Amino acid sequence: MSQAKRDNPDAPLRSDAQRNRERILHVATEELTRCADAPLSAIAKKAGVGQGTFYRNFPSREALVLEVYRYEMQQVADAAPQLLATREPDRALREWMDRLAGFAMTKAGLADAIRLVTSAPGSPEKPHPTPVMDAAGLLLRANEEAGTIRPGITADDFFLVIGGLWLIGPGEDWQSRATRFLDFVMDGLRAGAPGR
After folding, report:
1. What is the rounded distance in angstroms from the CA atom of residue 12 to the CA atom of residue 145?
2. Which residues have C-beta within 8 Å of that of residue 17, sequence separation ≥ 6?
3. Phi, psi at residue 194, to the nearest 5°?
4. Among 49, 71, 100, 142, which one has the highest count of C-beta atoms within 10 angstroms of its own C-beta?
5. Sign of the C-alpha dihedral, residues 72, 76, 81, 84?
6. Closest to 117 measured CA to CA, from 56, 38, 60
7. 149: exposed, middle or buried (C-beta count within 10 Å: 0-12, 13-18, 19+)?
């Protein structure tokens, strides 16, 4: 790690360092979803980075697992304003719900790895879902303003209703089950919308 990065850990990474980090996170998501105790050396090798690069980015298994979880959650959160910029609010919300379903399946696959790194005494806490909650609030407000969903739905209400998504197992038909469930949720959000 460069002296500047050590002095300011929030400083942006060089583009090649950022690509390495994202490649590690992508491979780690796949490998840890498949096997909670996947060897870190295998993740580094599959990501095409050396051990030094890997450990500069992720000095421990705990750091890697929690960053994968945080990274995946941030990707879902960041999709909300992007979708709103290019789609009608109700279409943006429904497409974002599909991305949330993908995150739910990743989280289900990572559940054992997350539990392993957060269950021991003195372990770091699992990241809070604040970015995803904020993204849901943004989408709900846009839809309420457009009259495409019933008024007064909060992000807390939304996640209470959508909680069933986390009960769908990551089996072969999870995607079709999630689609049916999310269509049902969207129909409920639209019921009583002033613009319908």
Report:
1. 36
2. none
3. -65, -25
4. 100
5. positive
6. 60
7. buried
